[in-house]
Design goal:
Helix content is 56%, strand content 2%. It is mainly α. The protein has 2 domains: 73 residues, no CATH class; 335 residues, ADP-ribosylglycohydrolase fold, CATH 1.10.4080.10. The protein has a two-stranded antiparallel ribbon with strand order 1-2.
């Protein structure tokens, strides 16, 4: 909602259906004062205020406040198909915006795009191209959907199914479409079958065919190839603590370093907290508390806290981002994204632009920023032509529908074979 009047109107529509347990119609709220949005009674009778809390109107006020608060909390929750789609597409937009400038040094970026850096989505043909960041996010979603269909929503996931989804993605980067037998609907999408510069850690780990875990790491990689793909863990799991664990374990399937899987868990927890209706600062602070319960949390924790504090300063943004690193490791990518989110918390487009204009892993920092602010703000600030030009947006929409409605997926056995 864009203004308080609209929100109050929805509240009042919900309140009109409340059972007030005997409170008379004369005492029932009918409309709001248009000048100051105060709720007023339709008639002019004044209640006895000598003991308002024990009067019928006092009882009504308490009921009303309770119901309004519940309605408000429901309005702030982010659990609809549209919210899930905004999270996934927001990440894809950041990924695609950062793709052309990934690893470009600042002088090169200025030479190509001007003093302000890249500010518009670049297209190849008619489409804005994503990278492995968004592709692997999509396959994470597929693996978690399969697990939910097998074990139940919010149950501990079967990480072998997530790993199998990553193996399906691996085939899109190493084999021809014609040579692959699709394993479900996503791996049958022909446009996924083109090498897009995937991370070496992911490729090497998946080539070995042995899934890792926090308890049994397959390597000591600190790369950002985990944190950039785990947004679906935050969308699929209602408990932020569980979302953290799932996000971290999904990353640890291929990345065994603490600064790879802990930022991944943090990313998922932030998204889960936002889904519960929390504001940005609360979502981040609560996720930091979860992070502190894991061994070896200090480096990731310090990076994220530093980023939040930097966002409150007047230090030039390029200097602030550079002080956090280049984004090639998981903790750096999460920290840069955190800084951009808190520096521009009310405009997704400008936050994405800020998040990719640096000399590092621009597509990953753009993707993380887009996942979080896409969910939190929606996509209203994004030009329609950006949204229209995104490749695979229909496939992202299908995944969002299935994630948000696990119990009613059509043709689930065919779409998500287990």
């Amino acid at each position: 909602m864009d203004n308080a009047d609209d929100i109050m109107e929805i509240k009042m529509n919900n309140i009109s259906n409340i059972n007030l347990n005997g409170i008379s119609g004369a005492e029932t709220v009918k409309h709001k004062n248009s000048a100051n949005n105060n709720i007023v009674s339709e008639d002019n009778r004044k209640p006895d205020t000598t003991d308002l809390n024990n009067s019928p109107l006092g009882t009504y006020n308490r009921v009303l406040c309770s119901k309004v608060n519940k309605v408000e909390n429901t309005l702030n929750e982010k659990n609809s198909y549209e919210d899930y789609y905004n999270c996934i597409l927001g990440g894809a937009l950041g990924d695609a915006l950062g793709r052309p400038v990934e690893r470009l040094r600042t002088p090169e970026m200025i030479e190509r795009y001007g003093k302000s850096g890249i500010r518009d989505l670049q297209t190849m043909g008619l489409k804005a191209r994503i990278t492995d960041d968004t592709q692997m996010t999509m396959f994470t979603a597929e693996g978690l959907i399969r697990s939910a269909l097998k074990n139940g929503k919010n149950a501990k996931p079967d990480y072998n199914l997530v790993y199998q989804a990553y193996e399906d993605w691996y085939k899109t980067q190493t084999q021809n479409y014609e040579d692959v037998k699709p394993n479900g609907w996503l791996s049958s999408v022909k446009d996924l079958y083109s090498p897009i510069g995937p991370g070496r850690t992911c490729l090497n780990s998946l080539k070995e065919g042995i899934p890792g875990s926090i308890e049994n790491p397959v390597n000591n990689s600190y790369g950002c190839g985990g944190v950039m793909r785990v947004a679906p863990a935050g969308l699929m799991y209602d408990d932020p603590k569980q979302a953290f664990e799932v996000g971290a374990q999904c990353a640890a399937l291929t990345h065994g370093g603490k600064e790879a899987y802990l930022p991944s868990g943090f990313h998922a927890a932030v998204i889960s907290n936002i889904r519960q209706g929390k504001d940005l600062e609360t979502a981040f602070k609560d996720s930091l508390e979860i992070l502190k319960t894991y061994d070896g949390y200090e480096k990731t924790y310090d990076k994220i806290v530093k980023a939040m504090e930097l966002a409150k300063t007047d230090i030039p943004t390029d200097e602030a981002i550079e002080s956090l690193g280049y984004g090639f490791t998981g903790d750096e990518a999460m920290a840069i994204s955190t800084y951009c989110i808190f520096k521009v918390p009310d405009n997704l487009k400008e936050a994405l632009i800020l998040s990719v204009n640096h000399s590092g892993d621009s597509d990953s920092t753009g993707a993380i920023t887009g996942n979080i602010l896409g969910l939190y703000l929606g996509l209203d600030s994004i030009p329609q032509e950006w949204k229209d030009s995104m490749e695979l947006k229909n496939e992202m929409s299908s995944l969002a529908k299935d994630m948000s409605n696990i119990d009613n997926i059509p043709d689930k056995e065919e779409r998500y074979p287990i």
